[in-house]
Specification:
CATH superfamily: Ferrous iron transport protein A (FeoA)
Number of strands: 6
Number of domains: 1
Radius of gyration: 11 Å
Order of helices and strands: EEHEEEHE
Mean pLDDT: 92
Helix content: 10-25%
Length: about 80
């Protein structure tokens, strides 16, 4: 399993699990499409505001790097 900072922009990965955080945050991520087993693409990391942009199920979603660090992935082919 890899943390988000170990994935290069443009790479696809499969979300495996959440680590840390509270239930309401996990629920909100699931409402946005972040479900275990879902394919995710890291679009870019933005230094201003410490944001990361992810593509999930055709939607582009920005998260704070601290929030995204609670996600674990497996790289896809």
């Amino acid at each position: 399993m890899k943390a988000l900072h170990e994935i290069r922009p443009g790479a696809r990965a499969r979300l495996t699990r959440f680590v840390g955080g509270d239930r309401s945050f996990h629920r909100r991520l699931m409402e946005l499409g972040f479900l275990p087993g879902t394919s995710v693409r890291l679009v870019r990391c933005v230094a201003v505001g410490d944001l990361v942009e992810l593509e999930v199920r055709g939607s582009h979603i920005s998260l704070r790097r601290s929030e995204a660090s609670e996600l674990r992935f497996e790289l896809e082919g």
